[in-house]
Design a protein that fits this description.
With 1065 residues, the chain is an alpha+beta fold. It is built from 21 helices and 49 strands. The strands form eleven sheets. Strands 33, 36, 39, 41, 42, 43, 44 and 45 form an eight-stranded mixed β-sheet that branches. Strands 18, 19, 20, 21, 22 and 23 form a six-stranded antiparallel β-sheet that branches. A four-stranded antiparallel β-sheet has the order 1-30-29-28, with no helix packed on it. The longest helix is centred in the C-terminal third of the chain and has 40 residues, at 997-1036. Residues 446-821 form the USP domain.
């Protein structure tokens, strides 16, 4: 391959030309480059005679002869000089003597374009690959960019991330700890070939000859310098100066190397006097020692030193002896004492300012290989009687096995990775287990929940402040329950099944964003049974730790199962919401909750007189009854305890109709069939039960639970070994025919709720949940199972053995959930959205005195229903939730639909259904309307919608939200109020007396139309100028709208209708 014309641009500081335009990548383009013959004729003698005490050649080494050196880099931690060549090979040289330290292949075909050293390794960038290797050549990670990428440069940032740029129109951000690409920053001018960083900006050199200055946090462009008309070759920054060299366009003659260096003052953001040099500059670098001097290097090896604000002197030129080769790369050490050059012939040249040179001011010691020292071995007399046979070397044998070899049936190759943990159970105390502690979130911090971002899609389960919700999140893992509540819809205002369905729907839409359960908790607090069971805690009880959370969660478990069973058992008809899809329940009245959790039991009471009374009932959970303990410590089997708890037999005083008095009665409970989900309350509410768990933990060896459960009244219970933790009921490879005939069932543990005890705060509740393949496939696109720890908003993967370990000194079991294997085929797991367009039709007002003549809206007709991508304006005013107004972007009729009253300026009685003249409706009705619009794909326009949706408790996809507070906002500037924007852009005076949500929604739509007009007509640059003028005007007025009744009299009447057809909720 002919490398003539290749010059330094693929090294650490990549020049800014596209590969199709760069003369260093396309030799044919060099034919049009004009070089000054006078400058080439300048006589250059030995460097030591020209500039005494400056830089001179210290050492040269040939890495690979004939292969161009495309990148050189001084190691920032050790005394090493790195080089990479055109064929993807890297080598390192130690110290000023240039002794080869390591050499290895980085890429098989692509050239190395950038080298960057770190504390733990060295980064090598090729065309579409980033590889990190140790200084000895071991791979730490190998990251491949997306197809079609052409990377040229990278830069390390301060927060353990790096940025990569190239010919594409974006800069990729990569996190080094996880080796994952977090985001892509779009650049306006494609082709980022050089990147630098200061304490104020990121600097990007583009192939078009421009240099852009970008924000350190958002990467948005703040300033731009148009340096050269052809292309950018190199640039560097120091202090408040930026110097750049490049090529200028000469029309039909192609590109010409420009001998004027462009110098910019970063304080005033403007160019100062250009610097004319006597060589054709291709590389430049600031070498600040006593002064801020510049080193300018040409492709032919000439190097000139000059001050950026002074005049260049011919006496400051020296020549790199490349023996006719072209320079391909250049770098300066961090100590500024050494320079390195790589040429097209495969040689690396080291220049220094002193014979004893250090690459870094403080370098750590480089680990060198020990010298090979081979001592002469002593002579062995094999005839000596006392010489051991082990000293004799093993003779070479044939392929036949030795007599001492073990048979292949008894040996196996050692695995490369041992996935079995040597410490299966925790040994740390509770004080060291931070993940189990209670994470208290103050109200002020709760306002920032939208800033919480999780890297895993699964970690959006729940983010609320109530301990009991950790138990509700378990039911999300049961697919029949999830499908049931999302198909359920009724007219009850406070229905837990409906609210749970809304909550699960938000979790399905979420991609890592936290979801609140405020509407669910609101409905929960209105149910009398919740107060009767003591589930609603006072703030003082929770803060002082008086709440008994272990007993509370078990009462909650009974309540939520019974409530969901009752609400889903109600038939379609008067309670069904109009327009809702048909229920999945049959006409028999059996609910899915009953089929999933319910167990038919027979309660038998036998009196002393011999009369037996039998009653059938349905129970949704069971409670463990512990045996009486004596002084002798005895081992108990969990399966036997479970059997006696389910098939309970006890003696008590009960009323006998035959004897007509209370008599000692033997009560027995037998089951007819087992449920698909077995819910067990552990009832560890006293020191007696805690001592039982503690004793059993101490006397048992670790072994899995192996037990068979038979469907006919637990007639048989068997086990293969003792147990310590209830991990699984009956673990076996398969069931025999006899076992299947006897009705054996296999149950797996899928969830555990535990009480973490803390004497100071009262403790907290955590849940260990085994997330199955179905949920992982739906949220993350992977098929595997994993145990997770749920501790409020903290969710961590955890080992299954740790999840089933209980130390009652701090971790007490509360509820266990077992599921039957392969139970899903019994249930219909399809989700049919029960909300349709009928929710938007007119409905009766709750106000008794509301008259039709006073209606402030025109209801939507069937043919006016909104479609996907339609625009509506939205604004909400809250007492808790007072008014939501939605305004159509394009319509034919004038009018405003105001279903709820105004928040600001509200009069006594406006919210009272008995005397109000307004059109009133329920929160659930409003929620369903907005939910239908979201499901339809309608886009919402408003001002500050993030808070509105959070209070309404809705999850809206980001692509359906257009927030004017961000449309008219500049980075690192304040947010601007809707009133000021309306005055500045629309000449409207809104919110002068009270807040009107309809007026605000209409104004947001007008502002969005104004934004489209400004951005389309003038482009982004003109729109930035408009925003700057807006902020300047706001600062002058202190962001206060001038009095509308002043002399200038600007404004518009509030009754002016700018856009027709208003629809309100």
């Amino acid at each position: 391959m002919n490398f003539e014309g290749l010059d330094p641009g693929l090294g650490e500081y990549t020049p800014g030309l596209d590969s199709s335009m760069d003369p260093r990548l396309d030799p044919a383009l060099l034919q049009g480059v004009e070089l000054d013959p006078d400058a080439l004729a300048v006589p250059v003698s030995e460097s030591m005679h020209i500039v005494e005490g400056m830089y001179s050649e210290l050492h040269s080494v040939a890495a690979e002869v004939g292969i161009p050196v495309t990148a050189t880099h001084f190691d920032l931690q050790e005394e090493l000089l790195w080089m990479g060549n055109h064929r993807g090979h890297a080598s390192s040289f130690f110290g000023p003597t240039m002794g080869r330290y390591s050499s290895f292949q980085v890429h098989m075909t692509d050239d190395i374009r950038h080298i960057q050293s770190m504390d733990t390794g060295v980064l090598f960038l090729t065309k579409n690959n980033l590889k990190c290797l140790t200084r000895g050549g071991l791979i730490m990670f190998d990251y491949t960019t997306e197809e079609g990428a052409d990377m040229h440069s990278l830069i390390l940032t301060d927060n353990n991330t790096l940025l990569m740029g190239g010919r594409q129109n974006y800069v990729a951000e990569l996190v080094l700890t996880t080796v994952q690409e977090t985001q892509k920053f779009t650049v306006e001018v494609p082709g980022v070939a050089i990147m630098r960083q200061s304490n104020r900006f990121f600097f990007c050199g583009h192939t078009s000859g421009k240099v852009s200055l970008r924000d350190l946090r958002t990467f948005k462009m703040e300033h731009e310098f148009d340096a050269f008309s052809g292309s950018l070759s190199d640039f560097d920054i120091h202090g408040n100066l930026l110097a750049a060299c490049g090529f200028s366009s000469r029309g039909l003659n192609g590109l010409s190397c420009d001998r004027f260096l462009m110098v910019y003052d970063l304080r005033m953001m403007r160019a100062i006097t250009p610097l004319q040099v006597h060589v054709d500059p291709l590389f430049l670098r600031f070498i600040p020692t006593y002064t801020s001097r510049l080193a300018i290097i040409s492709q032919t090896g000439q190097c000139q030193f000059c001050e950026p604000t002074g005049l260049a002197n011919l006496a400051d030129i020296f020549h790199v002896n490349t023996v006719g080769q072209l320079l391909m790369s250049f770098d300066v050490s961090s100590s500024k004492q050494a320079l390195s050059f790589g040429d097209s012939g495969g040689c690396v040249h080291l220049w220094s300012s002193a014979p004893e040179v250090s690459f870094n001011s403080y370098s750590r010691e480089t680990e060198l290989a020990l010298p090979c020292l081979v001592d002469s071995l002593p002579q062995l007399d094999w005839n000596h009687e006392l010489m051991p046979l082990s000293l004799l070397p093993m003779p070479l044998t044939s392929t036949e096995p030795l007599l001492s070899d073990w048979p292949t049936s008894l040996i196996t190759p050692s695995p490369r990775y041992d996935y079995t943990s040597f410490n299966l159970f925790l040994t740390s105390s509770f004080e060291q287990l931070c993940i189990y502690k209670y994470f208290k979130i103050t109200s002020k911090r709760c306002m920032l929940e939208d800033t919480l971002r999780y890297k895993c899609y699964f970690i959006s389960i729940l983010y609320v402040l109530l301990h009991l919700i950790c138990c509700t999140s378990i039911y999300l893992e049961f697919e029949p329950v999830r499908c049931l509540v999302q198909n359920h819809l009724c007219q009850k205002e406070f229905c837990l099944a409906c609210e749970l369905g809304f909550l699960f729907h938000m979790l399905d839409l979420s991609r890592g964003d936290p979801c609140q359960a405020s509407n669910f908790l609101r409905a929960f607090r209105t149910i009398p049974e919740a107060s009767a069971l003591g589930l609603i805690l006072a703030d003082s009880d929770e803060q002082t730790g008086k709440a008994r959370l272990g007993r509370l969660i078990q009462s909650w478990n009974r309540f939520i199962l019974a409530q969901l069973h009752q609400e889903t058992l109600e038939q379609e008809g008067p309670q069904a919401y109009r327009g809702a899809s048909s229920s999945t329940l049959g006409s028999s009245g059996e609910s899915v909750i009953g089929r999933l959790f319910g167990c038919e039991v027979e309660n038998s009471s036998l009196c002393r007189c011999g009369k037996e009374t039998v009653r059938s009932s349905l129970t949704l959970l069971f409670t463990i009854h512990y045996p009486e303990q004596n002084k002798m410590i005895e081992e108990y089997d969990f399966a036997e305890i479970l059997k006696k708890s389910i098939c309970l037999e006890q003696s008590t005083q009960a009323w006998c109709d035959n004897c007509e008095k209370y008599q000692p009665t033997v009560q027995t409970r037998n089951i007819r069939c087992l449920p698909d989900v077995l819910v067990i309350n552990c009832e560890v509410n006293s020191a007696k039960e805690a001592e039982f768990w503690k004793t059993q933990t101490e006397v048992r060896l670790i072994s899995p639970l192996v037990a068979r459960i038979y469907s006919h009244a637990f007639t048989k219970f068997s086990h293969k070994s003792t147990l310590k933790y209830p991990l699984m009921l009956y673990t076996a490879v398969g069931l025999t025919e006899s076992e299947e005939a006897e009705g054996a069932s296999v149950y797996d543990l899928v969830a555990i709720v535990s009480h973490i005890q803390d004497a100071r705060t009262g403790g907290n509740l955590v849940a260990h949940i085994k997330v199955g393949e179905t949920y992982h496939q739906r949220k993350e696109g992977v098929t595997h199972q994993q145990w997770y720890l749920f501790n409020d908003f903290l969710i961590e993967p955890i080992d299954k053995a740790e999840s089933a370990q209980f130390d009652v000194n701090w971790k007490v079991p509360a509820v266990l959930y077992y599921v039957k294997r392969n139970y899903h085929p019994k249930y219909d797991l399809r989700i049919k959205n029960p909300i349709d367009a009928s929710v938007l039709l007119t409905e009766a007002s709750l106000a008794r005195k509301q008259r039709k003549s006073h209606a402030t809206f025109i209801p939507l007709m069937v043919n006016e229903m909104l479609q996907a991508a339609d625009l509506v304006g939205l604004d909400a005013e809250f007492v808790t939730l007072n008014q939501v107004s939605v305004k159509h972007f394009n319509g034919t009729n004038e009018g405003v639909v105001d279903y709820l009253t105004q928040y600001s300026g509200i009069k006594p009685g406006d919210l009272d259904a008995k005397i109000s003249s307004k059109h009133l409706t329920t929160l659930k009705s409003t929620y369903l309307k907005l939910r239908f619009l979201i499901d339809t794909g309608v886009r919402f326009v408003g001002h500050g919608l993030q808070k509105d949706f959070r209070v309404i408790n809705l999850m809206v996809p980001k692509e359906q939200v257009i927030d004017t507070v961000y449309l008219f906002h500049m980075p690192r500037k304040r947010m601007i109020s809707l009133r000021f924007l309306a005055w500045y852009f629309l000449d409207l005076n809104i919110q002068s007396e009270t807040h009107d949500s309809i007026e605000d929604a209409r104004t947001a739509l007008q502002l969005y139309r104004k934004y489209l007009e400004l951005s389309h007509n003038g482009g982004q640059e003109e729109f930035r100028k408009v925003l700057k003028a807006l902020y300047e005007k706001g600062r002058k007025l202190d962001w206060k709208v001038p009095d509308i009744d002043s002399a200038d009299g600007q404004g518009s009447p509030k009754s002016t209708a700018v856009f027709p057809s208003v629809m309100g909720l």
